[in-house]
Amino acid sequence: MAETLRRLIRVVFVALAAALLGLSNLSAAGAAPPPEPSGDASPMIVGGTRANVNEYPWTVFLANSSNFQFCGGTLVKANKVVTAAHCVSGRSPSSTRVVQGREDKQSSAGVVANVTKIWVHPSYSTATRGYDVAVLTLDRNLTASTLPLAGPSDGALYAAGTQATILGWGTTSSGGSASRYLLKATVPVTSDATCGKAYGSSYISSAMVCAGYPQGGVDTCQGDSGGPMVAGGKLIGATSWGRGCAQAGYPGVYARVMSYHTVLTQQINS
Ligand code: ARG
What we know:
The protein is of the alpha+beta class. The chain has helices spanning 2-21, 85-88, 192-199, 261-268, and strands at 49-50, 59-63, 69-77, 80-83, 97-100, 111-120, 134-138, 163-168, 183-188, 208-211, 228-231, 234-241, 252-256. A seven-stranded antiparallel sheet has the order 1-9-8-11-12-13-10, with no helix packed on it. A six-stranded antiparallel β-barrel has the order 2-3-4-7-6-5. Residues 1-5, 11-22 and 24-44 have low confidence and may be disordered.
């Protein structure tokens, strides 16, 4: 009960903060979508196409006890998943599941693992302040292949123009409904200058990386949070926030995985 009340209070607080900021990064963890145009449960992938989960076996989704998919994640070790802090902050491990190998949410394909531990970056407060990374420990080792994290020598993957793959089961338009199937899209990484122009001081280049076309149209959206942004065979980003979804001039914002390589690796190997 007390936990439910605390969750409710934080959800309301976060939604208010989002409305004030005019951002749509919030909706994880089953929060009610904030009203338009401040953003909402943004669409999963916007402008994407179906992805075969066997080609992206490390792409997982997070579900609650009712099997509702609320975020994405990436399998980085047999029993470890990287996701966004805003997806799992305040959640209990016992109410969180990781589903691997289920391209169609309405099927029972794949494996469902329980979560035994949730590590949220200790400096995380809200997505727009950075540190939007978390590591889940699973109750079993999954046999699916894992995706390596971008590390200290992968700076080139963050160059403007790098084609990155984004994946998720989120909504297909801002305020739309979530996708039944895993979707994917390709978006170019933007320069720090471009992202800073869009988001001002909310864009922290050491903590975030942006991707999207100047004209918009292709993006992650609500429900995609925590899921992978991949380039060069590495996890370079975790879906974090944006203003609406796929809007011209407002690229998607992703946690800059390389910046958290040391702390994430420590959690993954602990
Ligand atoms: N915060 C959203 C979520 O929790 C992801 C939003 C991504 N937005 C964007 N425009 N790329 O699912």
